[in-house]
Amino acid sequence: MLEKIKTYQTFPAGSPLIHAGDDVELLSSLVEGCATISMTLEDGRVQMVGLLLPSDFIGRPGRQVAPYDITAISEVTLCSFRRRPFEVLIAETPHIGQRLLEMTLDELDAAREWMVLLGRKTAREKIASLMVILSKRLSPRGHDVHFELPLTREAMASYLGLTLETVSRQITALRRDGVIVQEGRRGITVPDLDRLIALTGDDTDGGLLA
Amino acid sequence: MLEKIKTYQTFPAGSPLIHAGDDVELLSSLVEGCATISMTLEDGRVQMVGLLLPSDFIGRPGRQVAPYDITAISEVTLCSFRRRPFEVLIAETPHIGQRLLEMTLDELDAAREWMVLLGRKTAREKIASLMVILSKRLSPRGHDVHFELPLTREAMASYLGLTLETVSRQITALRRDGVIVQEGRRGITVPDLDRLIALTGDDTDGGLLA
DNA sequence: CGCAGAGTTGATAGGCTTCAATCCTCGTGG
DNA sequence: CCACGAGGATTGAAGCCTATCAACTCTGCG
């Protein structure tokens, strides 16, 4: 049934997909590429509050107005549904509603983990944490841990609550210490993931690190 | 039907209500008092990731293991339901599921707004933001803006990603500037709420400030 | 009265930001 | 084919905000 109302769209890198305050008529699933969720203060300071990778969902059933800016940072393909038919579908199929609640709870957990990072971690720990997150989401299973950074230094800074200079310095430091190996500007290999994880400052038992 | 499975319980200030990693058998609604949601790093640094005030919900349907510590910071009264019957109720009444999704989305929005605070705001802006939040939730409507701080300086520091000394200094500074008036250690009056809001750094148009 | 916990205030230090200059890298066009 | 340009990234120096360490004050209560 979803088949009937879905459409695919592709946007170039840098496209604003949604602007805070807009009326949102389309709910989407990110099929390919990478986008960011961000908020801006009065004087222009920006904080990224979410990173969207393939399989992530964009938009909220039951909410007309977008609370955040969403921007493509690589070429992005979306699979979109019009709001109304989708909301009807949810109302009729409790199972989908439950799944949506599950996803929202996961997002909430991720947001809270990120609050700990923003509030209490050092620059070094922040960078290590980001690398671990990206390793888990982008590195193919089973192989050596390797991935391409989908973010510029500026975007990383925005996500981590740092400046781009500090991000650059800390990445340089991690490379000097042999914790990561760089291939070109964006390629990252992690020779020993446990060593990287040890630098995140996270409590290694307490449940959340699934 | 909820009537049949609900029980009331009261806990003294300081009680740990839930410890991260625990199996949670009871879902609750906070009836009276104030509690905090917090996470702890390896070496003991603590970040509060949520503040629970009357009418807030504790626990997640469908999630057995608690991801956070929840602690009473004043005497607290909970209205609790056993997990199973409550989950059955949700499955049978889509309306409740929708309400739960609504509440979770609200929490997510609050968490993301807090990420901006933690990542980008100055100490001054953080304190001002907290005061505004507490004004909105604790000050009786229609009167002058006045409330009692439910948090110690340390708890505020934990919530704001600061130290308690910095919190104390900034509160002193706000009082010196006449933005707030203190009555005793905990009483706060805000003579001009707009002036306080102007100090939060928040963008005053873009949607989220409902 | 005196103690304990919460809060305030002061001095110092450190980590990150800011400002600035330079270096890469890659795509473009002469 | 290679020089050139522009945006991204790195590196350096200086300064500021907040943390840290420490002493002291206030308040309520046994």
UniProtKB/TrEMBL annotation, chains A, B:
InterPro entries, alphabetized: cNMP-bd_dom, cNMP-bd_dom_sf, Env_Response_Regulators, HTH_CRP, RmlC-like_jellyroll, Tscrpt_reg_HTH_Crp-type_CS, WH-like_DNA-bd_sf, WH_DNA-bd_sf
PROSITE patterns, per the entry: CNMP_BINDING_3 (PS50042), HTH_CRP_1 (PS00042), HTH_CRP_2 (PS51063)
The HTH crp-type domain, residue ranges: 121-194
A molecular function GO annotation: DNA binding
Entries under SUPFAM superfamilies matching the protein: cAMP-binding domain-like, Winged helix' DNA-binding domain
Cyclic nucleotide-binding domain sequence ranges: 1-107
Any single GO CC term annotated in Swiss-Prot or TrEMBL for this entry: cytosol
Keywords attached to this entry: DNA-binding, Transcription, Transcription regulation
Domain of life assignment: Bacteria
Keyword match Transcription: yes
PANTHER family (alphabetical): CRP FAMILY TRANSCRIPTIONAL REGULATORY PROTEIN, FUMARATE AND NITRATE REDUCTION REGULATORY PROTEIN
NCBIfam families, per the entry: TransRegFnrLRhodb
Name this protein carries in UniProt: CRP/FNR family transcriptional regulator, anaerobic regulatory protein
